[in-house]
UniProtKB/TrEMBL annotation:
<dbReference type="GO" id="GO:0000139">
    <property type="term" value="C:Golgi membrane"/>
</dbReference>
<dbReference type="GO" id="GO:0005802">
    <property type="term" value="C:trans-Golgi network"/>
</dbReference>
<keyword id="KW-0732">Signal</keyword>
<dbReference type="InterPro" id="IPR002884">
    <property type="entry name" value="P_dom"/>
</dbReference>
<keyword id="KW-0645">Protease</keyword>
<feature type="domain" description="P/Homo B">
    <location>
        <begin position="94"/>
        <end position="220"/>
    </location>
</feature>
<dbReference type="Pfam" id="PF00082">
    <property type="entry name" value="Peptidase_S8"/>
</dbReference>
<keyword id="KW-0378">Hydrolase</keyword>
<keyword id="KW-0865">Zymogen</keyword>
<dbReference type="InterPro" id="IPR023828">
    <property type="entry name" value="Peptidase_S8_Ser-AS"/>
</dbReference>
<dbReference type="InterPro" id="IPR008979">
    <property type="entry name" value="Galactose-bd-like_sf"/>
</dbReference>
<keyword id="KW-0106">Calcium</keyword>
<dbReference type="GO" id="GO:0016486">
    <property type="term" value="P:peptide hormone processing"/>
</dbReference>
<keyword id="KW-0720">Serine protease</keyword>
<keyword id="KW-0325">Glycoprotein</keyword>
<dbReference type="InterPro" id="IPR036852">
    <property type="entry name" value="Peptidase_S8/S53_dom_sf"/>
</dbReference>
<dbReference type="GO" id="GO:0004252">
    <property type="term" value="F:serine-type endopeptidase activity"/>
</dbReference>
Length: 287
């Protein structure tokens, strides 16, 4: 929840949902792009994952993936850290080209496990380190909402691709439906992948086909991209030690104190996760 303006010239401390998160995320991305306008969409995703902070976010599904990053189906990799993203972007080196490795599931087999070498036999398709992972699934079901699908990586990270949905009464099943997860970001692609399908319905469902699609890089990005500052890995809020000049001359600065004053009006402190790393522009004067 965030503090923001409300109806009738008042404020609220209970604004939440995508109406709050989408514009905040867009603003942070804009600041990051001003610090480095050469960033690609994949660069931005790498920066978000590497600087995200799982701070004060309560959920029962937090796990640690194969590269030691905490990840949740409710909160992803955590809160976006605007200050850390701007600093990391200013020294970022563009990530290598994205590669795609497709592992086909032979229809004659019913075992739901696939071993992949990350397409190492094909140099142009070799995926050593993961970004996005897709399971392309075709199945039939008397009630589609009863189907739950999970994918476990060679590193042991279990992703929920599809949760149970009581109101999904469709009988059409899924035809070459692409389910995606980013919870394996940075993990090694090579190894045994396991697809798990649970059917809580009254009749049988049939898996007809599934293919595994791996997107990522041949080399490890942590050795190529920018290097986060030592403080960005800490889970304690802090003020920016210095101002960062963005593309158009505006200065990024910490304004967390202003948010604390706003929170005081409501008679309680806001979660540190909300006030961390807020920023503002100084008025930009044309030369």
């Amino acid at each position: 929840m965030i503090v923001t303006t409300d109806l009738h010239h008042s404020c609220t401390n209970a604004h939440t949902g995508t109406s709050a998160s989408a514009p905040l995320a867009a603003g942070i991305v804009a600041l990051t792009l001003e610090a480095n306008p050469k960033l690609t969409w994949r660069d931005m995703q790498h920066i978000v994952v590497r600087t995200a902070r799982p701070l004060n976010l309560r959920a029962g599904d937090w796990v640690t993936n194969g590269i030691g990053k905490k990840v949740s189906h409710s909160f992803g990799f955590g809160l976006m850290d605007a200050g850390a993203m701007v600093r990391l972007a200013s020294n970022w080196t563009t990530v290598p080209e994205q590669r795609k490795c497709v592992v086909f599931y032979p229809a004659r087999y019913k075992l739901l496990q696939l071993y992949t070498d990350g397409c190492s036999s094909y140099s142009r398709n070799k995926v050593g380190y993961l970004e996005h992972v897709q399971a392309i699934i075709t199945l039939t079901a008397p009630k589609r909402g009863d189907i739950q699908i999970y994918l476990t990586s060679p590193s042991g990270t279990r992703s929920t691709l599809l949760a149970k949905r009581a109101r999904d009464t469709s009988r059409t099943g899924f035809r070459e439906w692409a389910f995606m997860t980013t919870h394996n970001w940075g993990e090694i692609a090579v190894g045994l992948w396991t697809l798990e399908i649970n059917n809580d319905g009254w009749d049988d469902a049939e898996l007809i086909r599934w293919d595994l699609v791996l997107y990522g890089t041949a080399t490890e990005v942590s050795n190529i991209g920018g290097t986060p500052s030592a403080s960005s890995s800490s889970l304690t809020p802090r003020s920016l030690s210095s101002k960062v000049r963005t593309r158009y001359g505006a200065l990024w600065e910490d304004t967390s104190a202003a948010f604390r004053k706003t929170a005081a009006k409501f008679g309680r402190n806001l979660p540190q996760a909300v006030i961390f790393g807020c920023g503002s522009y100084e008025k930009f004067k044309k030369k």
